[in-house]
Design a protein that fits this description.
Helix content: 55-70%
InterPro entries: DUF6216
Keywords: Membrane, Transmembrane, Transmembrane helix
Largest sheet: 4 strands, antiparallel
Strand order of the largest sheet: 3-4-5-6
Pfam family, one: DUF6216
Structural class: mainly alpha
Order of helices and strands: HHHHHEEHEEEEHHHH
Radius of gyration: 36 Å
Shape: elongated
Amino acid sequence: MIEQLSTLPAWVPAILKLAGILSVLVWLRVRSGSDHVLRSRVWSLVQGRPQAGDPVIQGFLAQRSTLMQFRVVTGVRVPTVVHTHRLLAWLDEHEEEVGEVARCGDHFDVRLPGLVPRLPSKAWLVFVTLVFLACAGITMLAGLTMLSDRGLVSVRGGSGAMIWLATSDASRWGSFEHFGPADCDQRAPTAIGARVGLPANEVATVCRWFTDRNVPRQIRATVRQQRTALLIIIALALGYGVPAFSASTTARAARAMRARLDRRRASSSAPMEEQRTLEPAGVSTGVSVEVGVTGS
């Protein structure tokens, strides 16, 4: 009946809300690169309504809060308000958007401001992109493998071929052909092996596993070990893949900005060069006057 329906415990929504709040706080800390926002909020909760104080200190704290707001909103970690003003002037002069600066990452020096002199080469960009794609593929493959309830085993003393083994069927790793207890009863190991790509003696061994009572327990233990190993592989792939993805995106954004700046510089200098070529050559005329100075 409906009264026997069990729902989530009452503490689960509270845990989810707390996790959401902590996620926002961590995001603010990472985005701003400072604890100023969190400390200011804690101080406001403890102190209550703000009171009049030293105007110099209050002005400094107000500027600091404004700077943190700029960092959180734009994603650009400008060190001071003065550097922020310089950055805004640079953006107006070069017709760039602050989001593009954030996407350039460390390739844009906010203290100059401007792009760093040496950007990653195209070969390096291809390399980190391939690293990211490889890590992404490994993560997806490992994640899909973790969902399987089959154990990856091999026959001891056999050919070394890896076999996906379950209680109901088995297949060679990398092949879609599989066989089960019914195939073992109806067909010879040689015929099964020719279809699935396994030696006949290994097929006969797997057929004996289907009738062994200890094999299901061994499969469950193997699956647990596989999932532990796959978690480690996923962690390593993420550890290499996430920095590679970040390096790839920031390098692409910086190279794109450099190309835009070069195009604007070339287009702005072209009219000046054209004007110089259109100017008529100057004709100089001069009258030489010789003045004789005699002295007595």
